[in-house]
Protein: CHY-type domain-containing protein
Organism: Lentinula lateritia
Amino acid sequence: MCKHILNAQVSIRAPCCKQWYDCSECHAEKQTHKLVKTMEMGFLCKKCKKAFYKDMEKYEESDEFCPYCDNHYVIEAKIPHAVVGVEGEDARIDARMLKDERVKAKNNHSVFELDPDEEAALLDF
Ligand SMILES: [Zn+2]
Ligand SMILES: [Zn+2]
Ligand SMILES: [Zn+2]
């Protein structure tokens, strides 16, 4: 299931890794390489589950329909706004964790390399 385009009508075959994805974002999440652009795109209709190829160089309006079931698969994408919000939140959490990690590392450092004053203070305690 694609969480970027909620109303995706087709899957697209990535020419680079020969995998089916609902959108380029899904590909980016699963793969570390860039999606290769091709002139002959492979599609899989979600309605009739049949695969077909389109020459992107000669793409015209009639090509926006599945050749098997006439499903209009080129449609305005419904993009869930909540996903964008959650991603922003995650980035903030990650940044905070990175900061904590640095603070911890610094503390560890001083524990292993105590200067005499600090050692005395610890013993007093
Ligand atoms: Zn790929
Ligand atoms: Zn997606
Ligand atoms: Zn179809």
Summary: Helices lie at 24-30, 81-112, 116-124.
